[in-house]
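[step 3/7] inverse_fold.run input=structure_tokens len=342
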């Protein structure tokens, strides 16, 4: 046996490789555990909610058990589907443990609040009160979500348009960059919170002043990253286009901007993150609707179950907007698809 594996016959190497691979029975067993773990964890959380005594004083609700029952039903349906549908089997087996983790976090939240009362009321309600607040206030929350998204998208799109416009000017024209960059460095980092009094004085319309605050927060990172992208376009791209007879507008819109789009999308992404922070500030300048206004309103009445419900809606909406932005980026920058994952 002094010969190495590389010197062994082909049949021997194949036998060794087959022993190193997981056997079909072990693969099937692992897949079954991964798929069935989620409904089992959900069922354990449901039983704990039903039979463990409550130490936190809270009104009884039926919404948290209903959410668990729906989640368990979905995971059992996924387990059944993956047995007969081969195309979705890898996706279901990959996502099933996440459902189990979701059930576990809900159970942990329920255990440390409602069951053990380790977190004081009314500041830390259990998940049952949060789900109850979502159901009871669904009409108000739906209207608040609509107004928040409208204000957010209005200010965000205005900031992106202004940032791209000034970024292209400063990146392409040296004279504009000479005078504009020192000004950008001085006023750009000023946070939107510091401009609330100015916004309220300049416009009596709360929606306009709120959108302006969001646009201000978005404008700076988009402008800076667009300027950097345009200014750093490889000279060879421009020289080849000039050799072929391209004019200034063609160089800007067909060469410089496409080449600078990876940097521009970084600025757009950073601007979207800033807009989430500026939205809550913008809804304090007199806006009488929106999720930020709703949170402040319910916090004043110590209804923290409804406050956390609004925060859950914010998390879903903001995560959805980020996902949509990355889908647009992958569509626009086909050659960089998957470089930045979300």
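[step 3/7] decode complete -> sequence:
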């Amino acid at each position: 046996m002094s010969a190495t594996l590389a010197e062994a016959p082909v049949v021997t190497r194949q036998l060794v490789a087959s022993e190193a691979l997981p056997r079909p029975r072990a693969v099937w067993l692992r897949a079954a555990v991964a798929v069935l773990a989620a409904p089992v964890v959900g069922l354990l959380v449901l039983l704990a909610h039903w039979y463990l005594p409550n130490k936190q004083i809270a009104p009884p609700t039926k919404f948290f058990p209903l959410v668990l029952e729906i989640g368990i039903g979905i995971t059992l349906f996924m387990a059944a589907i993956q047995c007969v549908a081969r195309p979705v089997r890898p996706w279901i087996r990959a996502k099933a443990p996440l459902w189990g983790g979701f059930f576990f976090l809900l159970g942990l939240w329920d255990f440390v609040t409602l069951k053990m009362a380790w977190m004081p009321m009314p500041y830390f309600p259990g998940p049952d009160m949060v789900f109850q607040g979502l159901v009871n206030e669904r009409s108000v929350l739906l209207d608040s979500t609509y107004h928040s998204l409208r204000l957010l998208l209005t200010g965000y799109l205005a900031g992106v348009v202004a940032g791209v416009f000034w970024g292209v000017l400063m990146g392409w024209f040296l004279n504009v960059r000479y005078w504009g960059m020192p000004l950008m460095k001085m006023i750009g980092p000023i946070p939107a919170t510091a401009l609330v009094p100015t916004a309220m004085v300049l416009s009596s319309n709360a929606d306009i002043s709120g959108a302006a605050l969001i646009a201000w927060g978005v404008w700076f990172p988009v402008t800076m990253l667009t300027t950097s992208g345009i200014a750093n376009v490889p000279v060879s791209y421009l020289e080849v286009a000039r050799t072929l007879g391209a004019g200034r507008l063609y160089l800007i819109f067909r060469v410089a901007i496409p080449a600078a789009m990876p940097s521009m999308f970084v600025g757009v992404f950073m601007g979207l993150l800033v807009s989430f922070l500026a939205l809550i500030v913008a809804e304090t300048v007199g806006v009488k609707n929106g999720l930020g206004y709703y949170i402040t309103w319910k916090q004043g009445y110590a209804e923290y179950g409804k406050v956390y419900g609004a925060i859950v809606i914010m998390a879903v909406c903001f995560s959805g907007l980020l996902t949509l932005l990355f889908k647009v980026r992958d569509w626009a920058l086909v050659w960089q698809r998957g470089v930045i994952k979300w």
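[step 4/7] annotate
The chain has two domains: 10-122, 138-336.
The radius of gyration is 28 Å.
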